[in-house]
Amino acid sequence: MHQSSMDKMLAFKNKFLDCKKNEPLMIMDLGSLDVNGSYREYFDIFPWTYRGMDVTHGKNVDIVLKNPYYWRNIKSNTADVLISGQAFEHIEFYWITMTEIARVLRPGGLCCIIAPSGGHEHRYPLDCWRFYPDGFAALARFVRLEVMEVFTQWESDDRYTELSNMWRDTVLVCRKARFTRFGAWRYRIWLGLRRGLTLDL
């Protein structure tokens, strides 16, 4: 985990969650395996509950996802906040994973995703994608999440080494809408249909 990504996630926390510091938030971290650092220190603070999720056991993993495209062990509408950093470039069918993010977020819940727009190939075990603001905004719209903020670090920042700067991370912050009971039911069915064709991947 490079320092510029850590700082971007901290900036998200300060901007969007400081007003909720006294609320008992459930915060889930997708791709949480500690590889040279993690976001836990920013979010594992009372009265918040932090849960790291990944597809393998390891340091900073509380929930092991047997299928990155269908999280059977996580109920719908359970996360107040879902964060993910330096993971989406490694997910082959990331748009399907996004349907699960939308499913587990509570109405009004926030999502923050950070992924590179540049940098060298770094398989872990795959390296599939790079992301720009338009692509991340489209991804949010794909699952009907409201874009709150989206940007890319296009330029080098003197605070960081080249190793940290080279990734030119893109950041997406989006929010799940609040639905009527009938609207929530329709949304859940719609997400299931979007995901359904890929369950055998």
Number of domains: 1
User: In what range is the share of β-strand residues?
Assistant: 15-25%
Helical amount: 25-40%
Mean pLDDT: 93
What would CATH call the architecture? 3-Layer(aba) Sandwich
CATH fold name, please?
Answer: Rossmann fold
N- and C-termini, Cα separation: 28 Å
The CATH homologous superfamily corresponds to: Vaccinia Virus protein VP39
Task: Name the overall outline.
Answer: globular
Q: Mind telling me the C-alpha Rg? A: 16 Å
- The strand order across the widest sheet is 3-2-1-4-5-7-6
Q: Could you describe the largest sheet, including whether it forms a barrel?
A: 7 strands, mixed
- Computed structural class: alpha/beta
Q: What letter string, H or E per element, gives the SSE order?
A: HEHEEEHEHEHEH
Count of individual beta strands: 7
Helix tally? 6
**Low-pLDDT stretches:** none
The CATH class: Alpha Beta
Quick gist of this model?
This protein has 201 residues and is α/β, with parallel strands linked by helices. It has six helices and seven strands.
Explain what you see.
There is one protein chain. With 201 residues, the chain is α/β, with parallel strands linked by helices. The chain has one domain: 3-Layer(aba) Sandwich (Rossmann fold). Helix content is 30%, strand content 23%. It has six helices and seven strands, in the order αβαβββαβαβαβα. A seven-stranded mixed β-sheet has the order 3-2-1-4-5-7-6, with helices on both faces. Helix 3 packs antiparallel against helix 6. The longest helix is centred in the last third of the chain and has 16 residues. It is globular, with a radius of gyration of 16 Å. The relative contact order is 0.17. The mean pLDDT is 93.
